[in-house]
Amino acid sequence: MLHLLHRQRVVHLLRTEGPLARADLADRLGLSRPSITAIVGELIDDGTLVELDARIEGPGYRGRPRKLLGCNPQARRVLGIWIDERRARIALADATGNIVREDETPTTGRTPASVIRSITRIGKQMINDAADGPVAAAGICIPGFVDSTRGFIVESKALGWSEVELGKPVSAALGIPTAVQETTQAMTLAETIAGRAREVRSAVLLNCGGHFSVGLIIGGRPYPGTTGVAGAIGHMPVPGSQAKCACGRIGCVNAGMSLHAMQSVAPHTEGMALKEIDLDAVAQETARNPHSQKIIGDVIDQIARAAILIEAVLDPEIVILSGLITEFEELIVALEARIEEIRPPERRGRTTTVRSHIGRDYRAAVIVALQQLDPDIAGLLHTPSR
To answer: Which UniProt keywords apply (predicted)?
Structure first.
């Protein structure tokens, strides 16, 4: 068991901070040089690692140039599957997370069984065509209440799904381990591994899109909560709110703090994909309409106040703005400005607001899949540099 752990630590360090030489690995992991040599030899033999070009040492170095080690991108591949209310996007990625191939299938108006059949059909084709290396795992992201331990969808209001087995049928059809995570939890994991939270110990992610939810990073790792739904506040009631939520209830957080809450300023865009919307035309139309500007301003203000409240409770190093709102430049600029404007004087300089660079797509699902190959990828042993 200890030997397996050391193998995982070597792979994790090279995946997140490599390439490195054997001596660097020994020093960073606190292992002896003979132990590292033996572990690296095994990992090279089974194709997990590869030796790269020799490193040129600095002036005064008298030994032989040391060879660098890196993860072999062709060793194992994974499938990342991102499901939302409009489509399911399936991507084939190598062991370093680079996307090799992608495809998609619509989800609107379809039953869970129909969507699952389409996903597994596309996934099987990608697996069969993956000539450069075996596909070892799959990761699925889906909005809603998700029991990630069972791969079970308790409820996804965005898709209209309830009590759906997702992980087991996909895993059985594809013949590979399949992990299922709620979208915001997956985005939080992605930020920890490859995004803005990689070099911090604490962060809050605000997923501002058609729904509003929060991701937490505590001690350098994602915090999913006791049952895996920490931060799922979209359908919590807001005192005094009479806004009607898409779920049918009155006063949900989503009714006043999501892009759906702004939908009335451009009702003709309801149900349209982002790429189908003429954003310039919508911006010009709303700019001339004081009522539209007030609706947008009210939503921005509520999101900003929620951000400040969460920031005050958790005192994170950074707040990451993520989700669909980051694709609307005027909205994200307005939100950043409002957060800074209402941040209390005693909070200034303590927390920094940043934008996500990961995006809201299958890249997060790819990281969920890669985590199955390297369980430590969530940062259990990660010590951020200062």
So the answer is: Kinase, Transferase
Strand ranges (DSSP E) for 172-301?
178-182, 202-208, 212-218, 221-222
- Report the alpha-carbon distance of residue 359 to residue 327 in Å, rounded: 9
Q: Is 78 within 8 Å of 174 (Cβ atoms)?
A: no
Q: Is the peptide bond before 169 cis (omega within 30 degrees of 0)?
A: no
- Write out the two tokens for 298: 């009210």
Which residue matches tokens 């994602």?
222
**Got the DSSP string for 135-182?**
EEEEEEEESSEEETTTTEEEEETTTTEEEEE-HHHHHHHHTS-EEEEE
- Decide: 83 and 140 in contact? Cβ < 8 Å: yes
What are the start-end ranges of the H helices in 130-196?
Answer: 167-174, 183-194
The tally of CA atoms less than 13 A away on the side-chain side of residue 109 is: 1
Which pTM does this prediction carry? Answer: 0.79
Identity (one letter) of the amino acid at 247? C
What is the Cα–Cα distance from 117 to 114, expressed in whole angstroms?
5
The reply to whether 77-187+362-373 shares the fold of 1-60+67-71 is no
Domain 1-60+67-71 has CATH 3.40.50.1370: no
Token match 């920490």: residue? 230
**Position 195, amino acid:** G
Per-residue pLDDT of 124-164, as tens digits, reads: 999 998 776 789 899 999 998 899 889 999 999 889 999 99
Span 201-355: which CATH code? 3.30.420.40
If DSSP codes are grouped into helix, strand and coil, which group holds residue 152?
strand
| Region at 114 (left for phi over 0; alpha for psi -120 to 50; beta for the rest) | alpha
Q: What is the per-residue pLDDT across 210-235, written as a single tens digit (0 to 9) for each?
A: 889 999 999 988 998 887 788 989 88
